[in-house]
Amino acid sequence: MRYITVALAKGRLAKKAMKLFSKAGFPCEEMEDPDTRKLIFENKEKKIRFFLAKAPDVPTYVEYGAADIGIVGEDTIAEEGRKVYEVLDLGFGKCRMCIAGPAEAAEKLENGSLLRVATKYPDIARDYFYNKKHQTVEIIKLNGSIELAPVVGLSDVICDIVETGTTLRENGLSVLAEVMDLSARVIINETSMKLEKDRINDIVDRLTKEIREEV
Ligand code: PRP
């Protein structure tokens, strides 16, 4: 029997996802060692292996079949636009994609001025402004600490994830509009879905059962 490979988005999501896999009957002890430099961790008995990747790379691994299953945020799935099946909402990692900025940007947003929008998610931002709001904007791609952009004058607003709202608050910014609700999702490679249907369905069913019991 071949291994089923699971790609996990590094960080908070991966930790929560591994807890869930463990409860669902797919534990992976070697992954819990904080000093390990290994990249792939396996459960030999269940023939399942896990690896950590940068979030935007998870849908790529899954589309190409290097991973059968991926665990990643809805934001990344929407931004990457990869050909994968999205099969389950894990219910954790809940946050919102928002347009945020200083109070004075609210008026510019309302009257459809040509805004500068800083974001790690240019496709989501473009879709929101062009297709939903029919507003022309200039999008500036950044790679992190997006809240800095309006504070130092790089952009008028940002399109970014808001979880607790602390980062916005501490930098004098607030939510001006909501783009979409987000949470962690399970994605599946299209070919694996056919060739490993029974094993994939079994894993997804067990994860689903654990989520239901947690609620
Ligand atoms: C995310 C997001 C915000 C922050 C929101 O950044 O981009 O900056 O978390 O969380 P809060 O509403 O609870 O304050 P992340 O920590 O992932 O790092 P990044 O800034 O490098 O993108």
List the main descriptive attributes of the protein structure presented here.
35% helix, binds 1-O-pyrophosphono-5-O-phosphono-alpha-D-ribofuranose, six-stranded mixed β-sheet, alpha/beta, D-Maltodextrin-Binding Protein, domain 2, five-stranded mixed β-sheet, 9 helices, 215 residues
Quick synopsis:
The protein has 215 residues and is an alpha/beta fold.
Please render the helix and strand layout as text:
Elements: E1 4-9, H1 12-23, E2 40-43, E3 48-53, H2 58-63, E4 69-73, H3 74-80, E5 85-89, E6 95-101, H4 105-110, E7 115-119, H5 122-132, E8 137-141, H6 148-152, E9 157-162, H7 166-170, E10 174-182, E11 184-188, H8 190-195, H9 197-214
Parallel strand pairs: 1-3, 1-4, 7-8, 7-9
Antiparallel strand pairs: 2-3, 4-11, 5-11, 6-9, 6-10
Bound molecules: 1-O-pyrophosphono-5-O-phosphono-alpha-D-ribofuranose (PRP).
Please provide a written account of the structure.
With 215 residues, this protein is α/β, with parallel strands linked by helices. The protein folds into two domains: 4-93 and 183-214, Periplasmic binding protein-like II (D-Maltodextrin-Binding Protein, domain 2), CATH 3.40.190.10; 95-180, D-Maltodextrin-Binding Protein, domain 2 (3-Layer(aba) Sandwich), CATH 3.40.190. 35% of the residues lie in helices and 29% in strands. The chain is built from nine helices and eleven strands. It has helices at 12-23, 58-63, 74-80, 105-110, 122-132, 148-152, 166-170, 190-195, 197-214; strands at 4-9, 40-43, 48-53, 69-73, 85-89, 95-101, 115-119, 137-141, 157-162, 174-182, 184-188. Strands 2-3-1-4-11-5 form a six-stranded mixed β-sheet. It has a five-stranded mixed β-sheet with strand order 8-7-9-6-10. Helix 5 links the parallel strand 7 and strand 8 (137-141). The two termini are 34 Å apart. The structure holds 1-O-pyrophosphono-5-O-phosphono-alpha-D-ribofuranose (PRP). 1-O-pyrophosphono-5-O-phosphono-alpha-D-ribofuranose is lined by residues 120, 144-147, 160-167.
